[in-house]
Amino acid sequence: MPAEKLVPFSVKDCALLTIATGRRAYTLGELRAGIAGAERDSIYFHFWGGLLQPRFEEREFNNDFAAWMRHGLHDSRLAEKLAVIDPREYTSLDLLRSDVVELIDERLDEAEYLHFSRAVQPFEFMRAQIVVFGTDKCVACPEELAVLIPQLPASSIFYHFIDARRRVPEAGDDFSAWLVNFGARGDRIRARLAQIDPYFIPLSVLRQQLAGAFADELENGHVAG
Amino acid sequence: MLLDDYAQVAGEDAIEHLRQLARPLVGKRFVHVNSTRIGGGVAEILRKLIPLARELGIDAQWEVITGDAEFYECTKAMHNALQGTPLRIADRLLRVYEETNRTNAEQLRDVLAPADMVFIHDPQPAPLAEYIGKRSGHWVWRCHIDASHPHRPVWKYLRRYVAAHDASVFSLASFAQALPHPEYIIPPSIDPLSDKNIALSESSIRETAKRFGIDPARPVVAQVSRFDRFKDPVGVIAAYRLAKDYVPHLQLVLAGGSATDDPEGEVVLAETRAAAGDDADIHVLALAPDAHRTINALQRLADVVIQKSTREGFGLTVTEAMWKGKPVIGGDVGGIRLQVIDHHTGFRVSSPEGTSLRLRYLLHQPRKIQTMGWKAREFVRENFLVTRQLREYLTLCVGMLHGAAERIELG
Questions:
Q1: Span B129-141, mean pLDDT?
Q2: Do A132 and B407 touch (CB under 8 A)?
Q3: Pairing between strand B117-121 and B138-142?
Q4: How many of the other CB atoms lie within 10 Å of CB of B106?
């Protein structure tokens, strides 16, 4: 069994600030053009930024494009197709963008009226600025992290489990990247974390699931050991 | 400590967040500039933000520009024009506006030129950025107005002054205009410790009910808002009448600030009273502008709060009602859409008929009122308290001081 390395995990936190890009879409064609020309951080914001925006419980749709198709242009078919896109399955935001544009093109081909439909409320293209800062919380082992996770603010969970996908794509999230240092028990928790789907749940539920994964695996490991 | 007081209502996490974000800003000088120290939403929020920022170690101060009656005549017209009223502002008034700002720029130069961050609130002091000339800090224009459909000639005139800032802040994305700098979106907030929102004793709520002849044992719905056609008080009375056939003991309270300084307000108040007629269960209350505790008590007295606006900026009266644990039936416009979530925190409606339908739905299900009210309060706690607004201001400042990069890593 490989030796465990003693590397502390420093908890960070973040604040997200929304910035209007000034670009708006009233029609599906304008939405397509906007997505095709948007900055990558704008695509990221419309898929993930909602997790830190004012919202209530579970969102009806998981990305802003799907929500606008349903409530702006009232096209449930495309809304549903856009809603099932899981951004975690994409290795780059450009590939994600390309699939969204493809779905819009398909729908424009099959529903001619969508060339002319105009929403009353436009789609507002946004992006976000993220400020990351350290906290005074630091843990030395998975057991300490298991105790800390239920107390972490949602923004901290966002930084370590969602934002990490942009920083450490190979590990998936900061917790898993750190758990590599803890041999078999670290591997067990990593396997559990890999099963958590953060895209379809609010951050408060994500925090519960993370805490549950740590608690279960550490307890099981203790019993097994 | 003020921060400790806010921790009681907003949570320790929120305050800790502020402390961490403020660390790189300790000792920096921030100056806010507006045109009045008393009255209005901007002054109300600055009265809280300044002491909170100081407690976080920021050297925050608040300056007020002054002008004569013609200056305010001009800026009132600008305000209306930014909200979409088509009007022409006389060149003479625009010259007064420019001259007043030049004079104020001279008086404030020593404070503003060396400041690290300057926040200019609304159109009144907007030309200062140009008139101060050489400045060492970052200047941000904060627009508190619904500028989604401004009267174009007036916006074209103002745009030059706004563009001289390094960034601007709007309350909703739909209010943002094409500008050559970053446009941040920061929704407004309420202060949970102000007279308008602080917790009240049952006895003081009952006392308010008694003062106005409202029976707290019977169902009460209330709309607290200026007497303004965009708030549709007459439509609220129509909704109440439709609902009253099914909820016979229903009482309606329509309360708003005094209309003596607003000729149109007086007209709408008279229309509202005429629509109410001699129905003893409709209480049309024209209150003094500082009747904050009375407003607070009336909102708490209500089972359901209505905000049937046909046009709305953000709708802080909705936020206030939600903070008091009331479900809100609100017009499907502006910032109400961000706050009222159908079946969760209330209902969005587009007509008196829709309003009456939702009233009946809620008034026949007291447990729903309770559940939705609780959710509404928690939603405000998470998103619309002054601590959240301060957090976003601090994030903006950190961002500006670090070159407005997409990602900023501190420490």
A1: 94
A2: yes
A3: parallel
A4: 11
State the best of B13, B56, B350 to mutate against chain A, taking most chain A CBs within 10 Å: B13
Cα B106 to Cα B99: distance, rounded to the nearest angstrom? 11
What residue of B is the nearest CA neighbor of A20?
B183
For residue B21, list chain A residues with Cβ-Cβ distance below 8 A: 15, 131, 133
The verdict on A131 touching B (C-beta cutoff 8 Å) is yes
Contact B187/A at CB under 8 A: yes
Q: pTM of the predicted model, to two decimals? A: 0.87
Minimal CA–CA distance to B18: which of A202, A160, A13, A163?
A13
Buried b / exposed e across A186-195, counting CB within 10 Å, b at 16+? bebbbebbee
Mean of the pLDDT values across residues B69-77? Answer: 92
pLDDT score, position B229:
86
DSSP state string for A117-153: ---SSPEEEEEEEEEEEEEEEEESSHHHHHHHGGGS-
The complex scores an ipTM of 0.84
What are the angstrom distances between the C-alpha of B233 and each of A51, B252, B256, B309, B318? 36, 11, 10, 9, 15
Domains of chain B by range and CATH?
Answer: 2-189+386-401 (3.40.50.2000), 202-383 (3.40.50.2000)
Question: What pLDDT, in 10s, does the model give residues A156-180?
Answer: 999 999 889 888 767 689 999 999 9
Over residues B242-257, the pLDDT tens digits come to 999 999 999 999 999 7
Q: Name the stretches of chain A with pLDDT < 70.
A: 1-5, 53-59, 169, 171, 221-225
B401 touches chain A (CB under 8 A): no
How many DSSP H helices and E strands does chain B contain? 16, 13
